[in-house]
Specification:
This protein is of the alpha/beta class and 491 residues long. The chain has 15 helices and 20 strands. 38% of the residues lie in helices and 20% in strands. Bound molecules: 1,4-dihydronicotinamide adenine dinucleotide (NAI) and magnesium ion.
């Protein structure tokens, strides 16, 4: 038997944390390591029965949870963040094993980031404040921010721990109870987090049900006892969930895909800037996460005057990244999550090649018997109307398009049904001000391609989503309602 270089959750292999106890459904779900393509373990595969039980537990616990002082709820989130930080390395190794995201560049940072999110919400939970109205003497009118009740959250596999931490924090900080449904491809780090959380929160406040989307996911989205659904994943499933929620007027938060522009101005390629700009483009594209990021800057618009200077540098940097086993500490880029996604990436690149695209670096990925390792690929000779320039490939595939006229470039950059993120590389302040106004996106980064920071409101426009996450403002807007109270003190 292979010696595991990560620590499995113990109780969590049951799959479901319901009302403070671990429950193992009879059906099971194999979890594969996409780097090594072996089965790591089997966990419980929940469905409608487990969702029913978890919703009942959450409903039972919710009023008492909401009645606790916000400072107590916050302290519990902070405690979970501290525990996660203390177990950071073992959780990061587990995460790398199940997601294929390299320990060095991704999983270690994700474990730390998730702990940071929990601690942020632990601190700001006390900011659940309302407003007062100056109605005159004898009248007191004010609002309070009340929790919605029971929240169901469904998360994907690309950064499961970070997204799990966001969903847990936003729901619980403001007094809701939660049922979290992790992705069937990568539930183990979440189950480890649930083990760390099990004796922190009162029974029923935080529940986890693992299982497939069709079984556990759909049962949660359609459950009449769920007041709000928060979903991160594909646009296709996001729309299904929106429909399900509309039938009972449940609230929704959606964080769906993107096809985000990364725009290069000539002054960002001055001799003293060009290295940093090239690295920024590589970071924005999320090559180090196999491109499996909704914020990936996957459409690169390069001013034609600097194309010949910049593109060889970007290609060189992307090609120099080491691809391999996510648990190998010398590796920059790990493996794509599963065979289906890998095959889809292969199809996108092959189609673009057949349409006449050529490679600045990379190649059409081939079917493989080993891990799912596509290499960083940059394509030119693309038309903005092709599928590869319009749809989320969710692989390490960057399309590069030259531009000359600013207005035309802006029209192209905005010509997408998505509006999640954008990246602008420029030095001139007037250019930066003009571009940040002109580009339609929920999050614009200038001269960098970093990750989300606790406290920022992050969310998409157009078909990229509804609502914003990572901030207390987002939690108040999307996980509470305003109750207005008007008191005639001296009628
Ligand atoms: P998906 O949207 O099917 O899965 C995300 C989550 O939704 C998982 O927990 C899954 O179990 C659940 N789910 C699936 N079907 C469901 C249903 N009928 N009802 C309720 N829940 C359901 O994503 P998938 O299939 O893993 O990836 C497909 C594509 O989606 C990717 O290639 C990528 O383009 C996009 N995607 C975008 C993400 C983002 O962060 N915006 C994250 C993951 C995928
Ligand atoms: Mg799917």
């Amino acid at each position: 038997m292979a010696i595991l270089d990560f620590e499995l959750p113990t109780d969590g292999l049951a799959g479901c944390l319901i009302d403070g106890a671990w429950v193992r459904p009879t059906a099971s779900l194999p979890i594969e390591n996409p780097s090594r393509r072996d089965v790591i373990c089997e966990i419980g595969r929940g469905g409608a029965a487990e969702i029913d039980a978890a919703v009942a537990a959450a409903r039972k616990a919710q009023k008492a949870w909401a009645a606790r002082p916000a400072s107590e709820r916050g302290a519990m989130l902070t405690e979970l963040g501290n525990r996660l930080a203390a177990h950071g390395e073992t959780v990061a190794r587990l995460l790398a094993a199940e997601t294929g995201n390299a320990i060095k560049t991704q999983s270690r940072g994700e474990a730390a980031g998730a702990a940071g999110v929990l601690k942020y919400y632990g601190g700001v939970a006390v900011e659940q404040k309302g407003e007062t109205l100056p109605l005159g003497p004898g009248m007191i009118s004010y609002t309070t921010r009340e929790p919605l009740g029971v929240v169901g959250s469904i998360i994907p596999w690309n950064s499961p721990l970070q997204l799990g931490a966001v969903k847990i924090s936003m729901a619980l900080a403001v007094g809701n109870c939660l049922i979290l449904k992790p992705a069937e491809d990568a539930p183990l780090a979440i189950l480890r987090l649930a083990e760390l959380a099990a004796d922190i929160f009162p029974p029923g406040v935080f529940n986890v049900v693992t299982g497939t989307g069709e079984e556990a996911g759909a049962a949660l989205a359609n459950h009449p006892g769920v007041d709000k659904i928060s979903f991160t994943g594909s646009s296709e499933i996001g729309k299904l969930i929106s429909h399900a929620a509309a039938d009972r007027v449940a609230k929704v938060t959606l964080e769906l895909g993107g096809k985000s522009p990364c725009i290069i101005f000539p002054d960002a390629c001055a001799p003293d800037r060009i290295e940093a700009t090239a690295q920024g483009v590589v970071n924005a594209m999320r090559f180090a996460r196999q491109g499996q990021s909704c914020t990936a800057g996957s459409r690169l618009f390069v001013h034609e005057s600097v194309w010949d200077d910049l593109m060889p540098l970007v290609s060189e940097k992307a090609a120099a990244m080491t691809v391999g086993d996510a648990l190998d500490d010398s590796v920059d880029i790990g493996a794509v999550i599963n065979e289906e996604r890998y095959a889809e990436i292969c199809r996108y690149v092959a189609e673009a090649e057949s349409q006449g695209a050529s490679f600045l670096t990379g190649e059409t990925p081939r079917e493989t018997d080993g891990g799912f390792y596509p290499i960083p690929t940059i394509l030119k000779g693309i038309d903005n109307s092709w599928r590869i320039a319009r749809e989320e490939v969710f692989g390490p595939v960057l399309v590069a398009l030259p531009w000359r006229d600013e207005a035309e470039m802006i029209a192209q950059a905005n010509n997408t049904h998505y509006g999640l993120a954008a990246f602008i590389f420029a030095r001139d302040a007037a250019t930066i001000a003009r571009m940040t106004r002109a580009i339609d996106a929920g999050w614009i980064q200038v001269n960098q391609g970093g990750g989300q920071i606790p406290g920022m409101s992050y969310g998409g426009i157009k078909q990229s989503g509804v609502g914003s996450e990572y901030s207390i403002e987002g939690a108040l807007e999307a996980y509470t309602f305003r109750k207005s109270v008007t008191i005639a003190v001296e009628p």
